[in-house]
Structures are given as C-alpha cells and as structure tokens.
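Thread title: Can someone regenerate the structure for this chain?

I was given the following input by a collaborator and told the matching structure tokens would be attached. They weren't. Posting the sequence so someone can regenerate them.
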Amino acid sequence: HFDMALMLHEEGRDPHGCLVQARHAELQRIHAVSGPNGMVEVIATHGCTACEPHGGKRMTVAQALAQGPLPCRTCTTNPNAGGFGWCRCMYVAAIRR
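Best answer:
Regenerated them for you:
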C-alpha cells in the first residue's frame, strides 16, 4: 500500500486512500505483538498545521483502528502537482505509563 501511495503521489494524484491502508497495516503489526489494548503514540510531521495537533497522542491499538487519525487528510507536507500532501505521521508502539 505504501508503494502504491508513493506512486500516486509522484503522479500528482491523491495518495490518501493507500496511505490509510499502509497505516492500518502498521497498526495490525503492532496489534500482533501487543494485542488490542497495546498502546501506540503518534509521531507527527513537524511544520504541518494539520499534522502537529496529533503529535504525542497516545491511544490503544483498538482506538487507533477505530478512530484512524492517520494519515492527516489535509497534510501540507511536500504537496505534489495535484496539491495533495504526503503525510509522514506514523504510529509507534508505546509503553503504558
């Protein structure tokens, strides 16, 4: 999904749908290790007003799968010829506090 998103972005097309699938796969990998109650944290793209508010948010894998805050639909990072941004925000496994 990531490779398809990259190709769409390079062609000036909207990569959002494929990036959603790539982030979902990311969460599934974390889920396989930590389970649905495992925690994730959002690492946000700096300099993008759409992405920065998500930075540091912590939630369970199940919540992330249900809410799907990533990728940011209105990301302004590295816009392509069609004006679509390339959201680099990601989920990382987090330790419960």
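DSSP finds three helices and three strands in the chain.
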